[in-house]
Amino acid sequence: MNASNKVVGPLICYLSPVTVASCTASLRIFDSSPDGLVDPEEEPSFTFCGHEISPGATFYSRDEHLLLQIVHKDASSKGFMGEYQFSSKDNYLSDGIEIADCSYRIEKTKGVLYSPSYPYYYQSFVNCTYILPQRKGHRIVLSSGEISLGREATIDIFETTNGV
């Protein structure tokens, strides 16, 4: 499998910086480079103050490149320990056929659905539709494995009968 078919994750970080009101140690994540190179002036995709990261926090790359930069000011700390793995993007493919931008038709009688870019962060201002067509003599059972949406996000389930 080539590198373009991989995502980095889960990257589980256990950081133990000094916890004070000001940010003396931070983790900067660069995750938007198509070639893995970062310009010295480039702003990170995410910046976390050390005390903002809970033990066991998990970060996933958007694609196959992820650069972490740990910045320490003049504070001492225990350092960090983290685990990483490369996972195939094939592990996160929905069993639906994309029929329009973020609109999927589900043809199989059993499968898995993922939000766009899963396990990476769900994008803002996205409205996605998953169409599960009616099958005579069958019920549709939808079970959630993991739902982590923002405070303002909603899930609407529309039920139709008799093809209406």
Provide an overview of this structure.
By secondary structure, the protein is mainly β. The chain folds into two domains: 3-88, no CATH class; 93-164, no CATH class. The chain has no helices and eleven strands. The protein has strands at residues 6-8, 11-15, 25-30, 46-49, 57-59, 67-72, 80-83, 86-88, 96-100, 103-106, 129-131. The protein is elongated, with a radius of gyration of 20 Å. Mean pLDDT is 75; it is low at 12-20.
Indicate the radius of gyration in whole angstroms.
20 Å
Shape: elongated
Main beta sheet: 3 strands, antiparallel
Helix content: under 10%
Q: Please give the alpha-carbon distance between the first and last residues.
A: 44 Å
Number of strands: 11
| Widest beta sheet: strand line-up | 5-2-7
Mean pLDDT: 75
List the total number of helices: 0
Strand content: 25-35%
Give the SSE string: EEEEEEEEEEE
Instruction: Supply the helix-strand structural class.
Output: mainly beta
| Domain module tally | 2
Low-pLDDT stretches: 12-20
Keywords: Disulfide bond
Protein name: CUB domain-containing protein
Domain CUB: 102-164
InterPro entries: CUB_dom, Non-NMDA_GluR_Accessory, Sperma_CUB_dom_sf
